[in-house]
Amino acid sequence: MSVWIGPSQLRVDGHKELTNYNDIVTIQAPETVYIPLSNGQVDKVEVLVKENDRVFVNTKLAYRDDNFTVPYYSPVSGVVKGIKKLMHACLKPVDHIVIENDGKYEKVQAFEPVNFETTPRLELIDFMMNAGIVGMGGAGFPTYVKYKFAKDIHTVVINAVECEPYITADYRMMENHMDDMIVGIKAMVKMAEAQKAMIAIKKTRKKLVAQLQAAVVDHPELEVTLVPDVYPMGWERT
């Protein structure tokens, strides 16, 4: 028996009630913003801005210049103060672009929006690349690469389990942005050339389950799948 199923799974008190119904909070950026140019595993980065350049929200600051292109965008408007080497969560110093935040959050459009239903698959994958979407596990693996080389995919699995104690970020995001999530899932099904998508969620999330089931009723390629309320749950091997 796998260590990840059966007796090794526990029913833990997640304390989800502490934040289940709280509003999502936007944290304001500080006066000086540091944009890391590496996660400790990426060395080839081409910087597109220089000291004293004026930047805006969505200004392209740099891009990963290797086999896996990933752009870096500014989250604030302000002035570039230079590049500084600072300690990073990867436990070693990496270069950071330093921006003096003017607090105005003036924006430019980073790239043209697309309609996923009418956009060809490969153009959708390029759109994902230009959006700079990467994995959140620490390695920063570009998400578009998984779709670019997808082959013989039957089902896209959407992990909506959120089994970790105390965390309700996914719960709140799904409840607040259900329509956007459905559009995103349908786009991923198209990019993967899959037949369907399965949204996995804990069976105890009754309110959200009902909302999900109502949201997919007109989308036969989307399916809501209930999983046990145990830990761990939601990882590939569970």
Summary tags:
238 residues, alpha+beta, OB fold (Dihydrolipoamide Acetyltransferase, E2P), 4-stranded antiparallel beta sheet
Quick recap:
The chain is an alpha+beta fold and 238 residues long. It is built from five helices and ten strands, in the order E-E-E-E-E-E-E-H-H-E-H-H-E-H-E.
How are the elements arranged and paired?
Elements: E1 32-36, E2 45-47, E3 54-55, E4 60-64, E5 71-73, E6 78-87, E7 93-101, H1 121-130, H2 143-148, E8 155-159, H3 169-176, H4 178-192, E9 196-202, H5 206-215, E10 222-227
Parallel strand pairs: 8-9, 9-10
Antiparallel strand pairs: 1-7, 2-4, 3-6, 4-5, 6-7
- Name the strands of the widest sheet in spatial order: 1-7-6-3
Strand content: 15-25%
Order of helices and strands: EEEEEEEHHEHHEHE
Structural class: alpha+beta
Q: Considering DSSP H and I runs of 4 or more, what fraction of the residues is helical? A: 10-25%
CA-to-CA gap between the ends?
A: 12 Å
Overall shape: globular
Q: Report the sheet with the most strands, covering strand number, pairing sense and barrel closure.
A: 4 strands, antiparallel
Description:
With 238 residues, the protein is of the alpha+beta class. Among the domains are: 6-23 and 150-227, no CATH class; 32-101, RNA polymerase II/Efflux pump adaptor protein, barrel-sandwich hybrid domain (OB fold (Dihydrolipoamide Acetyltransferase, E2P)), CATH 2.40.50. The chain is 21% helix and 23% strand. The strands form 3 sheets. The protein has a 4-stranded antiparallel sheet with strand order 1-7-6-3, with no helix packed on it. A hairpin with a 6-residue loop joins strand 4 (60-64) and strand 5. It is globular and about 55 Å long. The chain starts with 31 loop residues before the first strand and ends in an 11-residue tail after the last strand.
